[in-house]
Amino acid sequence: MNKTQLKLTSTEIGTLWGQYVNGTMVNCVNKYMLSIVEDTYIREVFDDAIKITENQMKQVSTFILNDGFPLPIGFTDSDINPNIKRLFSDIFCLDYLYLMAIHGLNGHVISLTTSVRKDLRDFFDTCLTDGKNMYHRTVDLLLEKGNFQRDPYFFPRANPEFIDSKKFLDGYWGDKRPLSAIEIGNISLNLKKSIMAKTLGIAFSQIAGSKEIREFLTDAVETSNDHIQILSKKLKDDNLPVPMSWETEITESTDSPFSDKLIMYHTGFLFLTSQSYHGLGLAGSMRYDLIVDYEKIILKDLTISKNWFDLMIKNKWLEQPPIAPNRKEIAKDQ
């Protein structure tokens, strides 16, 4: 049997649908950033990122349409004004592309491992290759410009060691043990993502057209800042450095290059994906205080996500993904 003639599974169509909506959103942001970036090397990376995404979206469209599903609206050039004045610095744009490359890589891995059809697996293989190349290019360029933020490091001990006491789990009473390398790695990554979410939230709150959305964004910024304070304290308590903030890389512009729909969707995307990263942080923690802190952070994420969901529905901005047939309703209509 021809593998490309297999019907898309619910997982495959859901993955493709999400790839299209998220991909068109990120592509709009990249187009705006390309229009304001002055550095030649950063411009080249953004130009290639846009070409890669547009090629991927064409292929995703073909997969969806060939199986009879309607193509999502997603985001188009009507959601951006690329000629508006600068909102971000060049180096912030590059760091944004670096972090979104990480998101993209993680998404492509999941898409590949949940796909069965050979043509889909080949496609996501290509996406992974493109994503890895983009990750390497953004890291290399950030390093070259002296703006890549390395995670904390420490000197190695002489020999392997085993945990010899339940005190290893303590975090509230007595002396806390130092953070493990796994815990530090998760804290550092979550901090970088929270700092990005906070920075974008501040920028979006300056340019959003709706007062209700600006108020939501203010709450989102405060939530991201709470996350940053909680996680930063853990590193500082062990005399470890924390990632730098990006607020100073936002201009004072109040002219919006993005539609309110795009602003809201992007904010929701960051908070929804952060729940999975915070969940990984929780799963990799072996100190009680860290576990409790991650639980608090995830709960705050859920609150913001609920408010986001309500606003998106109110403004009719949230597209419905393909859903299974309602057999009870079908039976009633007979």
Radius of gyration based on Cα positions: 22 Å
In terms of structural class, how would the helical and strand content be classed? mainly alpha
Total E-strand runs: 0
Helix percentage range: 55-70%
Query: N-to-C terminal Cα separation, in Å?
Result: 36 Å
Mean pLDDT: 92
Overall spatial form: globular
Query: What is the N-to-C succession of helices and strands?
Result: HHHHHHHHH
Beta-strand share of residues: under 5%
Total helix count?
Answer: 9
Largest sheet: none
Uncertain spans? none
Please describe what this structure looks like.
This is DUF3231 family protein. Pfam families: DUF3231. InterPro entries: DUF3231, Ferritin-like. With 334 residues, the protein is an all-alpha fold. It is built from nine helices and no strands. The chain has helices spanning 10-36, 40-66, 90-113, 118-144, 181-207, 211-237, 260-283, 288-314, 327-332. The longest helix is centred in the N-terminal third of the chain and has 27 residues, at 10-36. The mean pLDDT is 92.
